[in-house]
Every structure is written in C-alpha cells, then in structure tokens.
C-alpha cells in the first residue's frame, strides 16, 4: 500500500533492520540499564537519521568528560517491537525517540518520565515554534520534547503534469477541483499517469479534512471519534470516485507502493502526492524531475485544517537511573549548534528560527523548500490537536485496511464507514 504519511515510511526507511551503535562502551539493544555516568539513547529511522545521530552523540561525549552514551537504533517497526519488550522488562533506554502514534500509549502506562521540572531549567524550549513547544504534554504533564516541526503537504511534479498537457493546480484549489483536475490528467494520459496518488487509507490526512469540516477527529477525552460516520463514508466515496475516473492509480498499484522507491510519484504513475512536508527530501532523491510543494486542498469557505506541530519527540524513561543527565542530552539534541547543523532536516523542519537560520539552507533545495513551506503557513495553520489518543496506531491500521477493501471491491464506502466506526469504539474505549 502507499504509505507516504506513515512514520514507518518517513523514519523507517532502512531495510537493515535492527542495528546497535557502539559509540562508547555500551551493550547491544536490550542491554542492562545504564549505570551512573552512562546513558542509553535509542531512535528509529533510516540511514540518514542514524548517521547524523551517531555523529552528534560522539561529539556530545567528546565535550563532556566521563559521560558515555550508547546509541541504539532500528527501523520503525523493529524499534517498537524491541521497545515494547524492554518496557515490559523495565529496561528501557534512558532517552528514546517517541512517535506521536504511540506516545500517549507509553505515557499512559507510566513508561515515560514527567519532565516538567526540567523545562525552562535544564531543557530550553523558549525559542521553539508554538506548535512544537506545546507538543509532548498529556493531561498537563510533559512527557516529550519536540525535535522538529511537521505539517501536511502536497508534492507536485510540474514537468510530468505539463507533459500530459495539463496545468499545475492553483493554490486556492478545493477537494472538488482536485478531483476534476486529477481525472482530467488520468484521462488525457490514457490512464498512464493519474492526477494524484490514492490517499483514501491515510488517517493522518483525513484528520485535516475533518477539521476543514469543523470537526475534530477525536473527542476531548480521546475515547471516541468526533468526526461522524457520514464524513468517513464521504471520504472513502470521494477516493472511490477518483479511482473510477482514473484520477488515482488502480488499487493494485497503490497496494504495491510499499516504500518511497515504489511511490506513484517516484514511478511516474501519479503527478502529485501527499505526505509530511520533510518527506520531499526522500522523494526528490529518487527523482530527476524537480518537486514543488503546495498546501492540501480545502473546502469552499472551509475552516483551517492544516496545523504545525511535532509528531516525534525525545522522552526519558520512567525507569532511568540518570534522568538529570538524560535531560541534559535532550537539551543538547534540540539546542546545540553542532547538533542542529549535523541533524539538519533529517528529523524534520528545525523547531526554531535560530536553528533554521543556522542551517543557511539553499531555498531551492528540498530541505529549503520544506522549511519555507512551514514558515509560510503562518495564519493559515490552525491550532494543533491534542496528542493522538491511546489506540491510534491500531485505528490507523484499521483505516488503511478498510480503504484497501473498498479499493479492491471487497467493501463499499458505506459498509466500510460503518465497520470503522463500530470497531473504533472498541479500540478507543479499551
């Protein structure tokens, strides 16, 4: 399936599976808890993420006498499997990367340390963008510190669009105008190029769509969907109509797109794609044609749906024997000039103006475009929603599965929406 929004895609690109980095005297993943003067830090990601963080941690140790940091990393799915096992054994890494997909689950079961006492003292978040600074709080307690800014975006292959005799959509486009345009592209190319990739299975994009309709995705307590069943059905009917009109690739093409390399915009089977803005770096690296960035479509007189926040954070294990040192490391990761320059944009758009200015990015580079996009949203961006509730990962997987069933004719938008709504009650209410 096409999974460009998934954190598995953005930060789990490496096919190498689990890997352990011996930056200092440290054990393999799953080793014993760190002693005084040593820390274990763990993260998920692809090769670019690993390389940057290895270099940053090595530099951190070189500037702090006696401080040792053992780095452990894995691809996204492997990471959560290992972390779940370690958490159950009360042997989590001191500092760990947390995805919003699982963040509330871990915070809710007491696996993360409340870092409130470190904010403003050991950890400085005063220069961060408001949406990022506010991330990482559950029930009034600080369980994470945002590393970067993130926002939904559309990636546009202008050269491919013009090659089939079409024009790039204008910035004021709506979901209806996207549908008409996408079907026209597909029909003008005799089905060889669809206007857009199929986004029917992405709960991360459905959320701003719901917000544009004036609906939150979840209730305030996170125990139920706030967006109605009718809106879910409308979403899936929209994409079903696009598939039927050649506006998106066939369901089989979407299902086969399991990584950036097979993404429809990379293979030339779709002219535009949706994703988190910083993913332009990974897509562009696989393409000759230059990609541009646009905001997602809206509704006529629709409410703001886009928002900027941090979907990935640094957290401290509740079982850490050295939380003070762990807090110092997190502050270094988000504020130190060497760390900022080395990490660049591989973890997302830097969370402060100081960090962005420090990078001096070429405006036409993929990273430069991502930064400009986030900075340009300004008042167009709505207030970020609360952290995704417990069960979000399971709900997202269900959303994708039902969308695939609809795409392959095994279900309908109406039946799928009813099933999703029914099962969501059990998932979120558990």
Automatic annotation (TrEMBL):
Classification via InterPro entries: Bact_solute-bd_prot1, SBP, TAT_signal
Gene3D superfamilies named among the record's database cross-references: Periplasmic binding protein-like II (3.40.190.10)
Signal sequence, renumbered to the chain: 1-24
Keywords from the named record: Signal
Name of the protein this chain belongs to: Sugar ABC transporter substrate-binding protein
